[in-house]
Each structure stands twice: as C-alpha cells, then as structure tokens.
Specification:
CATH class of the largest domain: Mainly Beta
Protein name: Diacylglycerol kinase
Shape: globular
Radius of gyration: 19 Å
Distance between the termini: 29 Å
Family: Belongs to the diacylglycerol/lipid kinase family.
Structural class: alpha+beta
Number of helices: 10
CATH architecture of the largest domain: Sandwich
Cofactor: Mg(2+)
InterPro entries: ATP-NAD_kinase_N, Diacylglycerol_kinase_cat_dom, Lipid_Phosphate_FormReg, NAD/diacylglycerol_kinase_sf, YegS/DAGK_C
Keywords: ATP-binding, Kinase, Lipid biosynthesis, Lipid metabolism, Nucleotide-binding, Phospholipid biosynthesis, Phospholipid metabolism, Transferase
Helix content: 25-40%
Bound molecules: adenosine-5'-triphosphate
Number of domains: 2
Number of strands: 16
C-alpha cells in the first residue's frame, strides 16, 4: 500500500482545493493508503512540511491544486524520486489536461490514482542566471507574459475579467518583439534564429492558461521540448488567433513555427517568462529537457 503525502493548496481554483483535499483523504485512507496531509500558508511553508514527510518515508505525493501548486514542489519530487498523483483543483489544470485526467470529476481522478500504473513524463529544466526551476507544462514569453504582468499588477477586478482587460490594453500597445533563439535539436545540431515574434513558448506539454494549446502536438514523453513561435501578425489576426488556440488549429497558420529541441536559449529585451503559470523572471533563459524525470499515476500515454 502506498504512503502518500497529500499536498493541498487551499487557494487553488478559488478555494476548491481544501474541499477536494478532504474528499481525497477519506477515499485514499479507506483504500488502505497511509495519508499525511501537507498544507501551509505559502509555497515556502509547504516545501518544508513536504520535505519532512518525504524524509519520513512517503513514496507517493498527491498534489491537490493547480499547475502552480505542483510547480512549487517539482524539484523536491524529482530529488526524492517519488511517484505523484494529480488531483486537479486549479483554474487552469494544464498538466491534468495533458495527462487526460477527467479534471472536473474528483472521484474519477481518484479512481485513476488508485488503479493506474505509473508512467514517466519529461520535465523542462529552466536556467536563469544562477537560478534553476523545473516546469511541467509550458514556458511562455512575449504577448502572453506581458498580459500576465499587466493583469498581476491590477488590483481590480479579480478573476478572468482582469485578464480580458489586460489583453485589450496590451493589444493596443503591442509591437512584435525581437527574439534571439539558440536551438539544439535531438542530434545536438545548433541553429540560431533572430526573428520578430508575438510570442515564444516552450512546450513540454501542449497547453497553458487553461487549455490554450499553443504547443498543440507536444508530447509529455518524447524526450524533447516543442519551441513554438508566432511570427509578427496584424492586431486583427492576433485577435482571431485566440479562439484557434483552444483547439490548436493555429498550428496551420503560416506565421506559426515549431522546433523540437533538446534545449533552447531565448533572449529578448525587457521580456519576462512564465512557467506553469508562475512568474519565472526576465529573459534570457535556457530550457533543457529532462527526459522521463517524473513518475505519475495517470492513464497510459497515448500510443
Ligand atoms: N501548497 C500551496 N499552499 C499555498 N499556496 C500555494 C501552494 N502552492 C502554490 N501556492 C500559491 O497559490 C497560487 C495558485 O496556485 P495553483 O496554480 O495551484 O491554483 P490556480 O491558480 O487556481 O490553478 P492553475 O495554475 O491550474 O490555473 C500559486 O501561484 C502559488 O503562489
């Protein structure tokens, strides 16, 4: 039987995390698992409680929260080489989407936790100066990170409306960004690209921002990262691109480019990057794939 640390982010998904954590504790304990609850006021306190539970012998970590909740502890999970389970409670849940978890249905996600064989997924290791961070879904920079920066600086309104207002404000002022990319492909060949772009995203998984499939087609276990960029487009075409992101149909646009790489360095003046929806900080950054770095209880990978 598994000995699990159940990490609960009570803030996830507008406070849904706590209730989902209680359902999970009951269900996992009645299935015979040992469950140690790990919670805290912020990522720092959660990290130290989790480290203590891992030192006490937990072999599984169930993360009840959104992509941000997992992002804050990824390095501890990889270091301890535990198996994780994801109980989506966030607003975005992009890793849960990529794992094809039924993210609106906690009981169905618990069925999967209790009945599946672990699979291994890749992660992206992001270097910025002397800092290293692990990312499970997408690293994004450009139009989307500018929108995030603007939305995060706004005190009002809360929720999605803040993002809609920030999108409109950014659209008014937005100009293509000069990016310098250095791409290292699977065989180690290096390509340098200097280009204007609306955004550059590095996909370990296909989506960010709650199902925006910027890196549609990216696989969590191909040992590669998908570097996706949208070359300069008019404001009206950029607006028309948003609905395409939901389905991933933007990949057929002639301004869309994709490179599958082992690592990439991205540089652009004054641009910030976000990873798993969390602020990573200013470019430049280098991201490299860590193949099969994390063991996850989830349905088998698509063939
Ligand atoms: N275990 C935790 N306890 C308290 N706060 C946390 C914890 N983990 C992360 N946080 C903070 O809570 C914020 C939101 O976390 P999370 O991503 O889990 O929820 P969300 O934003 O609703 O979901 P999503 O990222 O899927 O949209 C993070 O940005 C982080 O600052």
């Amino acid at each position: 039987m598994r000995h699990a640390a159940l990490v609960v982010n009570p803030m996830s998904g507008k406070h849904r995390g706590e209730a989902i954590g209680e359902v999970a504790t009951r269900r996992l304990r009645s299935a015979g698992w040992t469950v140690d609850r790990v919670t805290g006021d912020d990522v720092v306190s959660v990290r130290s409680s989790l480290a203590a539970v891992l030192a006490g012998g937990a072999d599984t970590v169930v993360v009840t929260g959104g992509d941000g909740a997992l992002h804050g502890i990824l390095d501890l999970l990889v270091e301890a080489d535990v198996t994780i389970g994801v109980l989506p409670a966030g607003t975005g849940n992009d890793l849960a989407r990529a794992l094809e978890l039924p993210y609106g249905d906690t009981e169905a996600c618990l069925d999967i936790l209790l009945n599946s064989t672990p699979r291994r997924i890749d992660l992206a290791l992001v270097h910025q100066g002397d800092q290293e961070r692990l990312v499970a879904t997408v690293v994004a920079s450009g139009f989307d990170s500018k929108v995030n920066e603007r939305a995060n600086a706004m005190a009002w309104p809360r929720g999605n409306m803040r993002y809609n207002i920030a999108i409109l404000a950014e659209l008014r002022a937005f100009a293509p960004i000069p990016f310098a990319l250095e791409l290292t492909d699977a065989s180690g060949d290096i390509t340098r690209i200097d280009t204007g772009a609306m955004l550059v995203a590095i996909g370990n998984g296909p989506s960010f921002g709650g199902g925006l499939r910027i890196a549609h087609g990216a696989s969590l276990d191909d040992g590669l990262l998908d570097v996706c960029l949208i070359r300069p487009v008019s404001r009206s075409l950029l607006i028309r691109t948003f609905p395409k992101l939901q389905k991933g149909t933007h990949v057929t646009m002639e301004e869309f480019e994709r490179y599958r790489v082992r690592s990439v360095r991205i540089e652009a003046p004054g641009i910030v990057a976000y990873g798993d929806g969390e602020r990573l900080g200013d470019l430049p950054l280098t991201a490299e794939v860590l193949p099969a770095a994390l063991s996850v209880l989830a349905p088998p990978a698509p063939a």
